[in-house]
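Provenance

Sequences were taken from public entries as deposited. Structures were produced by running a predictor on each sequence independently, with no templates supplied. The record for Pc16g12510 protein from Penicillium rubens is shown for reference.
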Amino acid sequence: MSKSPIQTSSARATYSSHHTSYRTPALTSTTTQGWVFIELVWSGWGISGPGNAHGLHVCKYNGADHLCFFQGNQQKGYCRGHGIIMDKNYRVVRSVQPGGGMASSDMHEFRPINGGKTALMTIYQQRQFDMTPWNVKTGVGWIMESVFQEVEVETNKVLFEWRSLDHVDPSSSYTWPAHTDTSGTGLNVHEPWDYFHINSIDKNAAGDYLISSRHTSAVYKISGTDGSVMWRLHGAQPSFRNINFSFSQQHDARWLYENATHTFLSLYNNGYNGFNKTHTYSAGMIIMIDHEEKTAIQIRNYVPIEHDLVSSSQGNLQMLPNRNAFIGWGNNPFVSEHDEAGNLLFWGSFAKDTVMNYRAMKFEWDGVPTDSPALWTYSRSAERLSPTSFYVSWNGATRVNKWRFWGAMNMTGPWTLLDEIAKTGFETEYTNSSFYLWAKVEAVDREGIVLGESETKYTFVPSSELSEFCTDSTCFDAQGYGYPGEEAAVPFIPPVGVNTVPWIDPNNPGSNIWTHPSSYPSPSSTPNYSDGWDIGRLLAWGTVLLVVIPLFAGAFLGHRYYTRHSLNQSEDQESSGLMNDMPERKHPPLQATDLPWWNWRRWFGEDEATSYLPLGERRLYSHRRERERNE
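Predicted structure for Pc16g12510 protein:
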């Protein structure tokens, strides 16, 4: 089983690849000659559900690797939603909500721990509050209380809950009402004052918690027994004296190591909230706390490639198993990796400047999607030597090493293996020098095993009118209605019944090539395109039918005539002696052979002759036939 290193991030806006828009991407990176190339592995856009997704990372659940993230609707500075656990097939296996009658969970932390048995979750809860010290005097004020819970994943049972108003007074906040775009006014339930703004939770082996508060610019150690604040780093009432650093508006505080005398932790220092700037650049930090000396010292500082980059929101620092540091630069769409000493190993951008990234993380991941590879094929015309371009991807598949490309002129084949090429990023492009009306691809792993096959696809061929605005490899989006230079062009309305879909039979609109693959129509750019093999087969069958049917009909009619004639002669000879003593017939019997050749009775009548006799003669004739049968 192969795994791919991925960097995961959750974006609050979308960005585009060749044909698709993505959100909540999982990325791979490769390096060559000093450059770092980041490729999309899996996009959760439209898969993880509506709304935004945050904090995508690999977690343990039921003994196996899963993808965990928050999914919900964005509010001002917080979210309403739930935690998602997704297996390696990208199927949601568990949705996790907070308990205790609280609001739905928030984006800042959803982190399964203890092998996925429990999860840490943040909650932003509005509460009525006496805000007269902040000049809210004509009525009750509203405050946003930061809450975190540890819950059982299977039952959502609350195992531990902590509320900021029980332990941290709002006077400790550095973000006042109506101070920033996310602080809130405190005047109504829709704009509560967010005085604390919890943005991370971690838990140590002793059962205590480490939390970060952006709006108090402090990190707190919380007792897992009674919820009391055991110590606070930085902020208005710090427990330690900072020796060589400061931070503000920070994110993502994590335990690294601790014993009875020292604590090592990491965090991402924003140094800016969009309104108040305390640092010239944002950075990742490792801090050592000396509990005996009551001091805190910065021992690592991971800086951006340019020392003027600041993140006004979001961001994280992940310490890797090899002691490297991986950083997501918050509302700036950058990621970087640094060695243990702080030296920059790579710096990458994964989107345009308008994209925000809450956290970026690096993990090993093995993804096995249950759907099929996606394929789109294009040819500028349906001429035999017109190149056919293939665009193939398989969202989330990490085991694909090569793609096999197949082409055919009929939906049912025969199929021709065109080529097998190495996978190149999220979407692989391949062009064959000939035209194929139908196409499919196979995904192949390193051992040559076929992992999956795409659906059979009908090649897109632009009309002759459209093709002049296309290239040999694709057609670009239209820039407007009409031709270039046409002013105030508007959409046309074609007459009802005109056939504009190439795979629909105009003579039978109820069917198409998927239900009747043998009668597919030709592409609109060329009239009646067919390959030579189909024409030859049609001519051969026509010749056979024209020759065989007349021969068979002649043989049948000749045999029928001979049988009739022999039967009539035999009956006449046998009955001649009996008929000599009878009176002369007034109406002799009419034999089948006496009928004209074009009368159907001559060839398909009864075996015995049809007689038109007087009643007496008819009775005598019947007696004779009965006697002959009895003999």
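Residues 532-579 form the longest helix (48 residues).
The chain has three domains: 54-320, 372-530, 537-630.
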